[in-house]
Design brief:
Shape: globular
Order of helices and strands: HHHHEHEHEHEHEHEE
Strand order of the largest sheet: 3-2-1-4-5-7-6
Structural class: alpha/beta
Radius of gyration: 19 Å
Largest sheet: 7 strands, mixed
Distance between the termini: 40 Å
């Protein structure tokens, strides 16, 4: 067999200009269309010591489009923080839609609550102050919940992503979506471990492990979108 030359690796100008491109995308197509209450909750989150945990607005715009495309009505959010993605979901599901929102930190949720109330969507939200696994297990104790949710968004403790995945696959209907945030972990998944600061190595390993497992999971169709900090979009396969 002929030995074919390996493809030459060259610098990718898109990667080199990623910050400028992100700024361009935000200023051109995201911020002009961002609802005022989402902008307000984003600005309020910016002053929080952990403000970087908020959902990236360009990733949020993609999520809003997906929610509308699939006519999602019954949803779950694992990890709420101040509620940017929660408010976004509530704004993009029908008036009688519902979000079960799970987070042990009610104090952070209450930062965004005034903006949720201002948007008039609090009635769509069932906030549960709790770690997520017990709530998901409780939902699964009722067989009538299985396969009934349209959509789930996960932005929580990275080492539990696979545990959430196993439970959410039972709750999400065939054809429904699960989105996992932060699966690129600041780009560290593509760096040698010695180049990653020590505090980030644990979450990096969790992201690497999850990405490998989800890539081999035949129960879902996936796309890892390099938007925000990495959006892994999973569709439950038939």
């Amino acid at each position: 067999m002929e030995n074919l030359p390996k493809p030459k690796m060259t610098a990718n100008p898109v990667i080199l200009q990623s910050e400028n491109l992100t700024k361009y995308i935000l200023e051109t197509t995201v911020y002009p269309r961002e609802p005022e209450t989402l902008k307000e909750i984003r600005n309020a989150t910016a002053s929080h010591p952990m403000g970087f945990m908020g959902t990236a607005p360009d990733a949020g715009q993609l999520m809003a489009l997906l929610l509308k495309l699939m006519n999602a009505k019954k949803t779950i959010e694992v990890g709420v923080f101040t509620g940017y993605s929660l408010l976004l979901t509530a704004l993009n599901i029908p008036e009688d839609g519902k979000v079960i929102a799970i987070d042990p930190d009610r104090k952070a949720y209450e930062i965004g609550l005034p903006f949720i109330k201002k948007a008039g969507v609090e009635h769509k939200i069932d906030f549960m102050e709790s770690p997520a696994l017990p709530v998901l297990d409780e939902l699964l104790q009722d067989p009538s919940n299985e396969g009934t949710f349209d959509f789930a968004f996960v932005d929580a403790d990275k080492h539990n992503y696979w545990n959430y995945h196993e439970r959410l696959l039972k709750l999400i209907k065939i054809g429904g979506l699960i989105i996992y945030d932060n699966t690129l972990w600041g780009g560290s998944v593509a760096k040698p471990e010695e180049d990653v600061p020590a505090p980030k190595r644990g979450p990096r390993q969790a992201a690497l492990s999850f990405n490998k497992e989800i890539a081999n999971d035949s129960r879902v169709e996936i796309s890892l979108a390099s938007i925000g900090d990495g959006f892994t979009i999973c569709r439950r396969a038939p």
